[in-house]
Amino acid sequence: MAASMCDVFSFCVGVAGGARGSVEVRFVSSAKGKGLFATQPIRKGETIFIERPLVASQFLWNALYRYRACDHCLRALEKAEENAQRLTGKPGQVLPHPELCSVRKDLHQNCPHCQVMYCSAECRRAAAEQYHQTLCPGPSQDDPRHPLNKLQEAWRSVHYPPETASIMLMARMVATVKQAKDKDHWVRLFSHFCSKTANEEEEIVHKLLGDKFKGQLELLRRLFTEALYEETLSQWFTPDGFRSLFALVGTNGQGIGTSSLSQWVHACDALELKPQDREQLDTFIDQLYKDIEAATGEFLNCEGSGLFVLQSCCNHSCVPNAETSFPENNFLLHVTALEDIKPGEQKYVSATWTAVSGSAADTADTRFSEADDPNVTSEEEEEEEEEEGEPEDAELGDEMTDV
C-alpha cells in the first residue's frame, strides 16, 4: 500500500515557504516512478525544504574507526580540535578560535544499558522510542556471540570502505516497526520508496556485495532473521523479500556526512578579520586540510545513510537544478535550488552519490579548487563539460545512490 501524502509531509520538519505550498509529489512514469515538482516560483539559493529521515544509521566501518557520531542523528561528537588531531595524526594539533567549535559535550548522553552515545537527551529518547529498545544489546555490546554483533561482523566482512550502505539501516527499519503502536503506518511509509524488478534488484545487490553476492546475501539474510524476525514483516525475511529490501536501501539510501571540523571552518570563514589576519587563518586552514589528506585521505567525515521520503522523489540529472547538503551537522537534509525553478518544473539532484555534501570533504575540495583558480571551482568545470556533451533535460533513472 502506498504511503499517503499526509504521511509523506508529516516527516518534512521545515520548509522554506511551507512544504505543502512549494513542492508536490507526482507520478512521472513506470520507469522513473515519482518526481518532485515546484508548485510556486523558487529562487536560486533558496532552501526548498528541510527533511529528517525515517531512519538513519552510521556506516559500520566508519564507527569502528572512531568517527564518533550521535547514534541517532549522526551529529559529530568530537570537538573540532580533537577531530583535527585524529585526522592529521598529530596529538598536539591546536586550532585557533576554539570558541567557534559548536560541539556541546556537556549535553552528550549515553544509553545506560549499552553505552552508545547521543548528542543530547532528546536524541537518546527519540532513539529509544523509535527503535533502540529492540536493538540495544545491553551488557552484550562487545560480545561477538550476540546476534546483532554477528550480523554486523558479517556485513563488515563483505562491504569494505568506501561504504555506501549499512545493514543497520535495514535493522532500524525492522526495529521501528517492531516498536510501533501503529505498525501499518510505518509499513506504508517504507512502501513509499521505489521498487525494482527482480533483475534490477539482483544487479543492485551484486554491486553492493561483489561477485559472490548470492552466498553473501543468504548469510546476511539468515543472520538478519535470527536477530530481528518480525511476523508483521515476514515477507522481508524471505529470500526474495530480503533481496528487495536490500535493493530498496541500495536504491533510496541518501548518504549523510557530518563534521565538527567543517562547522568550525565555516564559522572561521564568517569571521570579520583584518586582511592580514584573514590571510593567516586561511593559510592555516588550507595547510590543515593538506595534512589531513596526507594522513587520512578521503575519509574525513562521520558518514552514514538515511531514508528520506521527499528527497527520494527527486530524480537524477547530470545537470541538476537542486542540491542536497547537511549544514546543521546532523541528519537534517537541506535541498537548495541551484537555479531559478518555475512552477511545474521537476526538481533534479546530482547523479553522483555524495555522502559528505556540505561537510569537511566538501569544504576541503572547494578550498583546494579555489587555490588553483579563484574564479572557477572543479565542480563548475565538470558541470560545463557535462552541459556541452549532454542533451537538454537529460535524466538518469531514479536510483538514489550510485551503488
Task: Describe it.
This protein is of the alpha+beta class and 403 residues long. Helices cover 42% and strands 13% of the residues. Strand 1 and strand 2 form a beta hairpin. The two termini are 27 Å apart.
Key attributes of the depicted protein:
403 residues; alpha+beta; 3-stranded antiparallel sheet; 15 helices; 12 strands; 42% helix; 13% strand; globular; disordered N terminus; disordered C terminus
What is the chain-wise order of helices and strands? HHEEEEHHEEHHHHHHHEHHEEEEEHH
Helix count equals: 15
- Spatial arrangement of strands, main beta sheet: 3-11-10
Strand content: 5-15%
If you average the pLDDT, what whole number results?
A: 84
Taken from the alpha-carbon principal axes, the silhouette is globular
Helix content: 40-55%
Query: Taking Cα atoms only, what radius of gyration do you get, to the nearest Å?
Result: 21 Å
How would you sum up the major sheet?
A: 3 strands, antiparallel
How many strand elements? 12
How far do the termini sit from each other?
27 Å
Low-pLDDT stretches are 1-20, 352-359, 368-403
How would you classify the quaternary structure? single chain
- Summing up helix and strand content along with how strands pair, one would put the structural category as alpha+beta
